[in-house]
User: Fold 3',5'-cyclic-nucleotide phosphodiesterase from Thiobacter aerophilum.
Amino acid sequence: MRLEVLGASGGIGGDCRTTALRVDDDLLLDCGTGVGDLPLSALVAIDHVLLSHAHLDHVALLPMLADVRVGRRTEPLAVYALPETLAAVRECLFNGRLWPDYTSPAMPYVHLRPVAYGCPIELDGRRFTPLPVRHAVPAAAWRLDSGSASLVFSGDTTYSEAFWNELAAIPNLRHLIIETTFLNDNEDGCEASGHTNARRLARGLARLARPVVVHVTHMEPGREADIWAEVLTACAGFAPRRLERGQVITF
Ligand SMILES: [Zn+2]
Ligand SMILES: [Zn+2]
Assistant:
């Protein structure tokens, strides 16, 4: 599989784009503002969107992505997520007020497909499995298994026993893309909003066998340098990398 980073920030401003990862030519993990930089032909080629959760920085461009296909593609755009996430997307985005209801029989341009933790879906020989995380709203990480190696994308999460247990049990885990939104001194924010800081990240990584390539994403805009310095100190043994827009990971 080939994963291209379209957006890897916790917010907007300047060159920041919010979370979106393109897998091969036909699939997106989350649909944040990074999607808007793709050329029209690449947008039309997207058939599947896997969502981590319904927060706007991860779904903001989903309505307009669906719109691109209207009149250009006959098959609906398939959106996979937890039932709670799909309900929020339908009720808050495709509700006929913010955007047309593209999930309705009259305009069947989007198919909402519920998934469950631990139950994989197969798409053209690629396996995608939602994993449990702990965030302010129902959320999932996604494991991508190419057959020879796995990559896990955390979505948004604070420290979660269940999540790190799942990671530790993946025999072919090669890449981990994980959020580190806040500074270490913002423990209250981590707990209240379900995000990670360097200290919490280090606690989880200690559970993993090396070598796993750790890619840090979703840092709070304006505090990236300080957060990154804390990550380098707390997680030095893993030689973490900073996820950047434009990077490509193959596995
Ligand atoms: Zn979130
Ligand atoms: Zn987020």
